[in-house]
């Protein structure tokens, strides 16, 4: 008999979508996977060289549970340069991906009975981890086309039990990038109601409109003492499997993570830590520029193809690497009595008929959405998106099965 907390969790919908694509591929079909949340590109040579050097130098032992001190220092320096705000080693914890950093925060900060505001559609790990900590997710829904939160709606969700608000800009799945005014308003609200801000900035390298990513601590420096800024190398360096992330926070939160990680994973993988340290020491930014260029081209090309959709507006895709389609008009125009009634049905059809893996919005708490990753290799992306457009445009005229 499993513990009760397991009933709080449903499996990851994004992992299930990837799994479905893999199963279809195993039957010999050429599946184009636009369900994944990663960019298919060779990681930087500096990371690989750093890993090999670490192995050859015999880097086998445990490290400090929140990471090698030089790596924490290098991350503090990186973040200081990116945000224009000074960060020290004691503000940084190295984690096994952003996911572990977020779980540390949930366990260290949320009490049973606390409420945590989450902007929805959302990456499903946010509410799952809040539940694991015994707290209650309180959702504030955002709408197309901007998917940007309305501060009035967030304020209406605050109660005396509210402990924190979790934000994620650039956003998975919607691609929204919150503007400075929105970030400042969230900052003011957190100060007024004495809330923590958990700001997941895992997609900070991928902003395609405007200038650069703006962290909430840049938009509103006054919130720094109540902000936990979570980030990772997973997406930025295309090393999702290496499992290396970090968070920047007041030292009390870092100390709590040190305790937690000493009883959970001990430390993030030592080879990965050395590899990233090497990259931070010798990298000249060329990989990051190449990656941004590749994704920017993919986004432009993809938006051109998606502009051929009928009954579906073009997505914003201002940041992250997802096209998030609002299928509400299309779903309501589907022939009555047919076997296609929801975005889940449509995602299933795209896999079965067009051989394209996608993620239906239900995974993110939004029955109207469909997420397509534009990190796939460019030729496959182009073919996959054309098939998506062709299939979606054919739906309205199909006879009920
Ligand atoms: N945060 C967001 C918003 C994500 O979308 C993801 C992965 O999809 C993560 C964090 C996980 O990052 P990591 O692989 O570093 O744990």
TrEMBL record:
Cofactor(s) required for function per UniProt: pyridoxal 5'-phosphate
GO molecular function, one term: pyridoxal phosphate binding
Assigned keywords, A-Z: Aminotransferase, Pyridoxal phosphate, Transferase
UniProt entry tagged with the keyword Transferase: yes
Domain of life: Bacteria
Biological process according to GO: amino acid metabolic process
Enzyme type, top EC level: transferase
InterPro entries found in the cross-reference section: Aminotransferase_I/II_large, AspAT/PAT-like, PyrdxlP-dep_Trfase, PyrdxlP-dep_Trfase_major, PyrdxlP-dep_Trfase_small
Ranges in a coiled coil: none
Catalyzed chemical reaction(s): L-aspartate + 2-oxoglutarate = oxaloacetate + L-glutamate
EC number, as in UniProt: 2.6.1.1
Domain annotation Aminotransferase class I/classII large: ranges: 30-387
Similarity comment text for this entry: Belongs to the class-I pyridoxal-phosphate-dependent aminotransferase family.
PANTHER family, A to Z: ASPARTATE AMINOTRANSFERASE (PTHR46383)
Self-association state and partner proteins as the record states: Homodimer.
Protein name: aspartate transaminase
Species, as recorded: Bradyrhizobium rifense
């Amino acid at each position: 008999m499993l513990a009760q907390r397991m009933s709080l969790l449903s499996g990851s919908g994004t992992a299930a979508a990837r799994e479905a694509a893999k199963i279809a591929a195993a039957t010999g079909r050429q599946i184009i996977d636009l369900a994944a949340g990663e960019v298919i590109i060779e990681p930087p040579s500096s990371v690989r060289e750093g890993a090999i050097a670490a192995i050859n130098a015999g880097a086998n032992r445990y490290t400090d549970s929140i990471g090698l001190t030089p790596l924490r220092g290098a991350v503090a320096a990186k973040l200081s340069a990116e945000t224009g705000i000074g960060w020290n080693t004691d503000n940084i914890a190295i984690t096994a991906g952003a996911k572990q950093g977020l779980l540390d925060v949930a366990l260290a900060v949320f009490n049973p009975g606390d409420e945590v505001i989450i902007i929805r559609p959302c990456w499903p790990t946010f509410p799952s981890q809040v539940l694991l900590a015994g707290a209650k997710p309180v959702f504030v829904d955002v709408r197309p086309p901007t998917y940007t939160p309305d501060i009035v709606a967030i304020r209406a969700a605050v109660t005396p039990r509210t402990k924190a608000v979790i934000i994620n800009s650039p956003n998975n799945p919607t691609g929204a990038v919150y503007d400075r005014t929105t970030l400042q308003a969230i900052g003011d609200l957190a100060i007024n109601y004495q809330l923590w801000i958990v700001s997941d900035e895992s997609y900070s390298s991928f902003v395609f409109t405007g200038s650069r990513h703006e962290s909430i601590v840049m938009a509103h420096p006054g919130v720094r003492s109540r902000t936990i800024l979570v980030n990772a190398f997973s997406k930025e360096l295309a090393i999702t499997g290496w499992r290396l992330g970090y968070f920047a926070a007041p030292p009390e939160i870092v100390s709590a993570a040190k305790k937690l990680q000493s009883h959970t994973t001990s430390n993030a993988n030592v080879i990965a830590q050395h590899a990233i340290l090497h990259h931070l020491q010798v990298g000249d930014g060329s990989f990051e520029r190449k990656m941004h260029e590749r994704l920017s081209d993919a986004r432009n090309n993809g938006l051109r193809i998606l502009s051929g959709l009928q009954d579906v507006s073009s997505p914003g895709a201002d940041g992250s690497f997802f096209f998030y389609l609002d299928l509400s008009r299309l779903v309501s125009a589907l022939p009555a009595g047919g076997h296609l009634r929801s975005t889940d049905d449509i995602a299933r059809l795209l896999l079965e008929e067009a051989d394209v893996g996608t993620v239906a919005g239900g995974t993110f708490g939004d029955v109207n959405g469909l997420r397509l990753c534009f990190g796939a290799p460019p030729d496959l992306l182009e073919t996959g998106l054309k098939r998506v457009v062709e299939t979606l445009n054919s739906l309205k005229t199909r006879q009920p099965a």
